[in-house]
Amino acid sequence: MQNHLKDQTSPYLLQHAHNPVNWYPWCDEAFEHARQEDKPVFLSIGYSTCHWCHVMAHESFEDTEIAELLNQHFISIKVDKEERPDIDSIYMSVCQAFTGSGGWPTTIFMTPAQKPFFAGTYFPKNARYGQMGFRDLLLAISEAWNTDREDLLSAAEEMISYLSKKERATNITSREKLITTAYSLYKRSFDEEYGGFGQAPKFPAPHNLLFLMRHYEKTKDETAMKKVEKTLQQMYRGGMFDHIGGGFSRYSTDPYFLVPHFEKMLYDNALLILAYCKAYQLTGSQVYRRVAEKTAAYILREMTDSEGGFYCAQDADSEGVEGKYYLFEPEEIIKLLGEEAGKEFNQYFDITERGNFEGMSIPNLFKTHQECGIADDTLQRIYNYRKSRYQLHLDDKILTSWNALMIAAMCHLYRITEKEAYLDAAVKAQNFIESKLCEGDILYVSYREGKRGGRGFLDDYANEIFALLALYEATLEMSYLEKAQYVCQKALADFYDDEQGGFYLYGSENEQLILQPKETYDGAVPSGNSMMAYNLVRLYLLTDQAWLKEKAEQQLSFMSREAGHYPPGFAMFLVALWDYIDSPDKTTVVSKDRAELTNLACRIPLDTVVRVMESPTKDYPLLNDRTTYYVCTGRSCQPPTNEY
After folding, report:
1. Beta-carbon neighbour count of residue 353 at 10 Å?
2. pTM given for the model
3. Is the confidence at residue 386, as pLDDT, over 60?
4. How far apart are CA 218 and CA 578, in angstroms?
């Protein structure tokens, strides 16, 4: 059978288009049916490369018994969290409030008025290991809806009331103390033996590393940089990095960064490129540049549309088995490369008979101390062989917010390598956004198979500004800086809360839901509010415009209140705060000949504020009637010069 998902473009929704469950996408029609038929709504939120989403789909949503219960007693709605972050944000908050934790698939039961009364994540079809079965849950909720509805409605109202409260307690008053407290807590949670922060699972959270590197730049505290380097090296040497094909998996399931959750996400790889580029600039260590370039090569080879957009993700599963695509046995390598070369390869990448993951081996470098020990042509043979064995599902949605992060990453990589291919990729992806994901001043969330998704959310605008700033800093083309200001004004008009401060996740032109959240905490990616703090500070530093200073101050004040309860959860905001308190180095260029600016960005350190003036002024005259550079480092400025 086909349900109401058959005409959707989301790969996640299409995965469920032939389920026996009579799924609807999120739409007015579904809620109207729920009202007319007096049924509760079952909402299931996930994404196409989610392992436990696959498991629940196979166990329950493809099962005729479960489908019959859902179709008889509920109206069922499927949502792709990547296309509807507004819905995901609200109901993930619900799940966390009900259960104390969250994750995907997110399982929500609610009234036809969209008010939730029960939440969870994955449920097996039948009860096991003390966990309630999905079948029993459906029967219990259906019974309660018919016999104890007032209790359910009361629970729903209490949940909405609870989530509507916006108060945050904080005992931190100074901005400087936010930074020092964050750094102290990072040090406390750092894993000295294996790198990273906290216990397993360990997420890369590159924005945390970017904050620590900014802290090192400002304070010269070597401890901060040592923690960054330990983490970057451990992530690269372990199994989170794909040593055969490049790129990083989503997170490590163990403390060592050996066994990953094997799905690869565009946003992780973008943020990790930014972190490795910055580490290379600060240390000069070639390993960081090499990792960044291998990651970019993977993106350009496997995750890039012919028109320049970047795809979303690759699945963890092959043939229903997590990680199967990435695992090896020593015999197959020897058969492919021959006895001597095969044994050398196996030893180098720790591929053994015993294995390190369910009897097979994840390639890693933990037991080797030499770099670049395997020739590129050998790696290519293994890569080609690996691709011939199994297939990975590709989520080929093109998301504005994640594309923008990768555009910035490619710009930074261009600046540390001077390789035009990276800048070309960034420009091509930006052109894709402008031609496919933009209409006038309106951004859209996604694009797939010739169709745009809905109107964009805060993250789309915030990350697009971030990308445009990176393009300006890589090219010194004023048009990118002007576009960044234009998009910033649109974000302020549509998403900013003039009364309480901060930016709402969705704005006046989006669908209005039961709550209007402001996401401030940095999760797998920096929040839209953190990114807007960075953008506003950066735009002010680049333009010196009073209105941008005012808005930056307002956003920093709002985020300072939000961050007070746990500063380490706001790393990208703290980067912005550092830059506002202690401005980065600044170079003002008075241009006599545009050609002299070619590749200038590659000679200027990342994060330096570069202002280009196309004509001299009283404060910035030309020296010797030639292009002139005014360089300020720390709190002192150097004499003007014609050479940089």
Report:
1. 10
2. 0.94
3. yes
4. 8
